[in-house]
């Protein structure tokens, strides 16, 4: 029997890197991460500055168009996005095929994929104009899709977009507003949610972005590629971690129980992990978690709430960061650790958390997809494998086995 691993090592032609821990799959000018220093830059701009000073629409423009917009360019871009916020009316019928208690991510995978059946005029990926229209459509329609998934799950009528509102304000109204009643957007909540969207906009070649690129590398249409990204994001080791983190904080319930959960996370015989902790790339504090923690306080103050899970989260972080297990393995809070606390205070049920992540990450997905398709050297993504099955053998008819 030939040891294929040895053979591959000798030829030097293949690298075996399960989980892609040290393999770059592409070149990209979008996002830079220095995981040891806890640095995240979008087209050179630090995430902290973008989160504090810009808006989600500005960041979307930056990721798609390489540079920050002038005020005229921003106004034009916002206007374009606004014009695309409506969903084709027949898509409302499509929603009715889902069970009422379907997870919003299941609905979003289905509806995002179904867009390719409605917007044929933006599926020719060889035409840069069509690619940009599809990108604008996806960015614009995602809040409508997510809000409708929520409305469907609570049995309320869908609300049409109100294009007088901001991107984020409109999403809040479509989610929490009720027909025939005025919905007043709370500016602190609007700003906080917009900031959360900025923090989730892109994060280089994470699992869902790599999925979008791989799907797109075959020439698949952008709506199908984004549906693939949503499906991947749903997993608890990726976007699903924000939902899992809040569930964990509720399960811990009070600070006295934290040591019990830290002990479980360290126990190799227990599959439990501290959700919202650890990251493939960050071996330092995730800079997004810093902004997120600050935003919790702002939202609590504006809404006059004081959820005890925040105290549990703060104390859990403090204890874990003093524990040799977490120090040695360089496990710090990631973006998902505090985001659930904020989203829950705003009123989103936990099942919507990953849907909000998908909404924001759509910007990164479409920007990465455009970058890939525009590359003249672009090839279909086709990883190799190390075969570990049986060597060649002869077929035995079924009666003789
Ligand atoms: N709690 C306890 N131990 C942990 C945790 C955790 N949250 N995360 C990692 N470890 C331990 C592992 O058991 C492993 O220990 P070992 O070396 O003794 O076997 C070591 O740290 C390295 O962990 P890996 O799983 O090998 O690291 P990887 O880079 O593959 O995983 C991941 C990163 C998936 C994020 C992991 O840290 C994790 O599962 N965290 C919890 C889920 C989570 O918060 N995910 C959100 C990620 S951010 C995002 O997607 C937006």
UniProtKB/TrEMBL annotation:
Keyword Lipoprotein belongs to the record: no
Transmembrane regions listed in the UniProt entry: 337-360
Pathway listed: Carbohydrate metabolism; tricarboxylic acid cycle; isocitrate from oxaloacetate: step 1/2
Domain of life the protein comes from: Bacteria
SUPFAM superfamilies reported in the protein's UniProt record: Citrate synthase (SSF48256)
Claim: Cell membrane is one of the keywords in the record: no
Annotated region described as Disordered, given as residue ranges: 381-401
Gene3D superfamilies hit by this protein: 2.20.28.60, Citrate Synthase, domain 1, Cytochrome P450-Terp, domain 2
GO MF terms, alphabetically ordered: citrate synthase activity
Catalytic activity: oxaloacetate + acetyl-CoA + H2O = citrate + CoA + H(+)
InterPro entries attached to this UniProt entry: Citrate_synth-like_lrg_a-sub, Citrate_synth-like_sm_a-sub, Citrate_synthase, Citrate_synthase_AS, Citrate_synthase_bac-typ, Citrate_synthase_sf, Citrate_synthase_typ-I
Keyword terms: Acyltransferase, Membrane, Transferase, Transmembrane, Transmembrane helix, Tricarboxylic acid cycle
Family per similarity comment: Belongs to the citrate synthase family.
Protein name: Citrate synthase
Organism of derivation: Sphingomonas agrestis
